[in-house]
Design a protein that fits this description.
The complex is a heterotetramer, with two copies of chain A and two copies of chain C. Chain A contains four helices and five strands. Chain A is an alpha+beta fold. Chain A has one domain: Ubiquitin-like (UB roll) (Roll), CATH 3.10.20. Chain C has one domain: Aldehyde Oxidoreductase, domain 3 (Alpha-Beta Complex). Classes of the chains: A alpha+beta, C alpha+beta.
Amino acid sequence: MTAKLRFFAKFRELLGTDIPVPVPEGSTILSLVRDTAWKNKEGYDAIFDDKGNFHEFVIVMRNGKRVEHGDAAAARVADGDEIAVFPPVAGG
Amino acid sequence: MTAKLRFFAKFRELLGTDIPVPVPEGSTILSLVRDTAWKNKEGYDAIFDDKGNFHEFVIVMRNGKRVEHGDAAAARVADGDEIAVFPPVAGG
Amino acid sequence: MIKVQTEDVDIGALTAAAKVPGTGAVVLFDGVVRDDDITEMELEAYEDVAVAEMEKIAADATRLHRLLHVDIIHRIGRLSVGENILIILVSAGHRPEAYAGSRYIIEEIKKSVPIWKKELTKNGGRWVPGEHGHGRGKPGSPS
Amino acid sequence: MIKVQTEDVDIGALTAAAKVPGTGAVVLFDGVVRDDDITEMELEAYEDVAVAEMEKIAADATRLHRLLHVDIIHRIGRLSVGENILIILVSAGHRPEAYAGSRYIIEEIKKSVPIWKKELTKNGGRWVPGEHGHGRGKPGSPS
């Protein structure tokens, strides 16, 4: 079972993007992003606070739909999911 | 002594425009416009009410500056003046 | 550029030229002849006064809304459905000023610029009534 | 046309094409790279989601403001000072709808469309902070 992790903007610079990741049994959105971000301390710190929760401003999506931080810890990742993590948008 | 009378839009259709008019001694803006408009009843009625006053909506200018109706009856016409009379504007 | 003219406008070129230093937002308003069962529209202006009034409006808008650039081109003569009647192009550092400045200009033009429109239909013509009864903003106030 | 693209836009052609039947007013918003001591700007999008979100915004604007036509073209990639970043073009029967619809679209784009800008300066780069801390309108509300 694999998922794709996508980071954008500053998070992309620190962690890369379009990252295929194997999904261990029982993975949640939160655990999968944490495990992936862990490889780069600066990238991890950009996304998570010191309790391992998403910073308030971080936006998380699964397959293009917003996922609330409160739900990310319980939402199981399914095969083929695209999980996107990004800072506040600044287009226009 | 001559002045130029300019009518616009519907008033122009009825009365013409760029009309050079001799200015009799003591002419006011009101009297000069009245005398000129008199030649065409429909034109006159478009501009004046049955007391010979400008309809409320009529705009009068002398040399590009607005003249209040109340002042038009007293304002003496000077040689070379350009008097413009027109209905409410509708540009844009 | 503030003009009353019969010719059409090159909107692409005009927009490119509006990007003066400091520009972050450009807003273009394009008033178009609407197909309200008309064949054509005929526009007439008291030209010198119309240009002077539009120059005053542009200066006021620039001061009030901190604009960096203003073009106003009002067309006259005979125009077909879909043709440009009025182009207002403003540049500003940021979007709130650009939108507000553009809107200010069109509303003031409607109030005070001596231009008239006649709709030509199959059955003749009809002068379009102004949006402001007294034609100069507040009733009775000289400009 | 709702697009995220690297190429520039032909504003003249786009404006001409926006004059669909019933159009009386066209409003164009053009967001431009401002010369805030930067050399260039680099834009990045979560493309599929950005396009879907802009399509939703265009549909909402059309319904709320009775628009007749909407184009939104957001550019990405590396842009120089003075280049177009975002073109919003709306048509309506009358000007209040056109202005309000245009303004609605830009404000919603700022809130919710996943696009990011990095200002490149002589000393490196700086990600532009969003105008909305939470990036999706009301804090905590899913779109």
